[in-house]
């Protein structure tokens, strides 16, 4: 295990690049209408393909189990291989390299690719949590925010490289979805190392630089989304600028390495402690962290998956997540059909818009965590999740208005808030159930995504076909009943999350009362 700060930051940069290409399933709405025509399938069958990508998460816990026994690099490459096979075979079919591919085979291939996303996510989460144990919510937030750019990144690559006609988009997207994860995973794999995490006040400056780069990247993405209907020349320029900003985070480990070289002798003197001195320092740190609320929950009860399933907090968390962020993902999966039903043709610009705002939604919680943490305070994850759920419910009701402006605004709101909940959920899992069994626990929690995707997506498809009377429906009425149901369900999810927040706050208060005696903290630490 390495203790070099530069390797910590290099690993974080590696997870950023992985997350940037790990949302390949988010570009499905762009080519879903074409896929529907090519395969000659109904709206319900198309919805099932959208669900198939999420269905892979039902078996995401395999990646958590594998991470317990295999190296993280091997887990990463397995996930990339699943994506390559899942999307690659579909591309070969559309390119007429495979003569026949049945619907159920397409379903299984899409599920395999969706499962690959879980493997890559597991690696990224564990690297951030282990390398930045004292600031894991911030590190995880920065890393996961970049998955919000995936749809935008793939759209920009397709437009700038292939310039496809409308009936050729599916091939271009499937090719990139298959190739990009394998290429990036192969490059990034040597960068991923678990390093000893040590609190360093100079890491504050590194995080600030990361935030500046991330905000610049998101701003570039939003501007590109607004001007997505411009010429191909702008698209190439936009792709170049976005590429430069994605490479920019590597400056942080480079600066850290340069600083290590200059201060190597000084650091050797500063950290040349005796065993007793190191032990004394660690005990002080634990005492301070516990008084500050135990940001990572590492010294609290570590709950395994079996015990977790028996807790009321788990089910409140599970269903509030399903009734909010998962519902937002279902909306985004249906964005192609929603756009088509309203007579609009700019599906790619809407997908890019949701992706760009999803990026900022995922990034904002980590910025809040960073600046609030510097003041010794802590924001409850369930409370933050409840706050971001309410706007999603409001956006669904706004969509009852057929205005194009409302569609764009609601898409941005749902993209941003769904992204924020997804990012906060990683830290919420550790806050509620501890870090020891995180890989298994969180992969169990995200099984709500395929379940919700199927239930809400299937319901939307039935109502769509009922309104249209065939495989196609046109007019605002196609999704009005769906939006009313979704808005009501999301309101229920917000209420459940508020209950979770109240319960968790009470339990934390009880733990805080028990831990007021410093001697008890020392005994608790010594027994670990």
Automatic annotation (TrEMBL):
Q: Where is the signal peptide?
A: 1-26
Every copy of the Nodulin-like domain together lies at 8-254
UniProt KW keywords: Membrane, Signal, Transmembrane, Transmembrane helix
Q: Which GO terms describe its cellular component?
A: membrane
Q: How does it sit in the membrane?
A: Multi-pass membrane protein
Say where the protein is mainly found: membrane
Q: Does the keyword Transmembrane apply?
A: yes
Q: Where is the NFD4 C-terminal domain?
A: 299-507
Spell out the protein name for this chain. Answer: Nodulin-like domain-containing protein
Q: Tell where it localizes.
A: Membrane
Indicate whether Hydrolase appears among the record's keywords.
Answer: no
Residue ranges crossing the lipid bilayer per the database entry:
70-94, 106-128, 172-194, 206-226, 238-256, 314-332, 352-372, 384-400, 406-433, 445-463, 483-502
């Amino acid at each position: 295990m390495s203790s070099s700060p530069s390797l910590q930051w290099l690993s974080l940069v590696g997870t950023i690049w992985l997350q940037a290409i790990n949302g390949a399933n988010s570009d499905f709405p762009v080519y879903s209408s074409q896929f529907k025509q090519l395969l000659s399938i109904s709206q319900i069958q198309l919805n099932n393909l959208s669900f198939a990508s999420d269905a892979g998460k039902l078996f995401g816990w395999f990646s958590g189990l594998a991470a317990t026994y295999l190296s993280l690099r091997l887990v990463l490459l397995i996930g990339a291989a699943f994506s390559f096979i899942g999307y690659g075979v579909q591309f070969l079919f559309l390119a007429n390299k495979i003569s026949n591919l049945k619907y159920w085979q397409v379903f299984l291939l899409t599920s395999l690719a969706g499962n690959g996303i879980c493997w890559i996510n597991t690696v990224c989460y564990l690297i951030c949590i282990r390398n930045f144990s004292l600031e894991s919510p911030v590190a995880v937030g920065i890393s996961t925010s970049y998955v919000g750019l995936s749809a935008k990144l793939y759209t920009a690559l397709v437009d700038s490289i292939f310039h496809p006609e409308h009936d050729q988009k599916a091939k271009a997207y499937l090719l990139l979805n298959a190739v990009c994860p394998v290429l990036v995973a192969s490059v990034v794999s040597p960068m991923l190392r678990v390093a000893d995490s040590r609190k360093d006040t100079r890491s504050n400056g590194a995080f600030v630089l990361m935030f500046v780069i991330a905000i610049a990247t998101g701003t570039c993405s939003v501007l590109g989304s607004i001007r997505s209907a411009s010429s191909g020349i702008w698209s190439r320029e936009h792709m170049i600028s976005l590429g430069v900003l994605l490479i920019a985070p590597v400056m942080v480990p480079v600066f850290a390495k340069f600083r290590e070289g200059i201060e190597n002798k000084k650091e050797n003197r500063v950290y040349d402690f005796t065993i007793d001195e190191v032990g004394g320092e660690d005990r002080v740190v634990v005492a301070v962290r516990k008084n500050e609320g135990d940001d990572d929950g590492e010294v609290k009860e570590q709950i395994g998956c079996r015990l977790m399933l028996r807790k009321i907090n788990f089910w409140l968390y599970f269903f509030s997540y399903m009734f909010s962020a998962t519902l937002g993902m279902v909306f985004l999966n249906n964005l192609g059909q929603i756009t088509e039903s309203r007579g609009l043709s700019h599906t790619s610009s809407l997908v890019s818009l949701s992706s760009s705002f999803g990026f900022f939604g995922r990034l904002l919680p980590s910025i809040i965590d960073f600046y609030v943490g510097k003041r010794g305070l802590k924001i409850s994850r369930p409370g933050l999740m409840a706050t971001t759920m309410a706007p999603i419910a409001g956006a669904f009701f706004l969509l009852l208005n057929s205005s194009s402006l409302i569609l764009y605004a609601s898409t941005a709101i749902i993209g941003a808030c769904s992204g924020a909940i997804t990012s906060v959920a990683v830290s919420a899992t550790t806050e509620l159930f501890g870090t020891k069994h995180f890989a298994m626990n969180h992969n169990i929690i995200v099984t709500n995504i395929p379940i919700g995707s199927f239930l809400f997506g299937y319901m939307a498809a039935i109502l769509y076909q009922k309104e249209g009377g065939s495989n196609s429906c046109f007019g605002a009425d196609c999704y009005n009943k769906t939006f009313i149901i979704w808005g009501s369900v999301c309101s229920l999810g917000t209420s459940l999350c508020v209950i979770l927040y109240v319960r968790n706050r009470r339990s934390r208060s009880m733990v805080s009362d028990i831990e007021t005696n410093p001697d008890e903290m020392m005994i608790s630490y010594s027994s670990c």
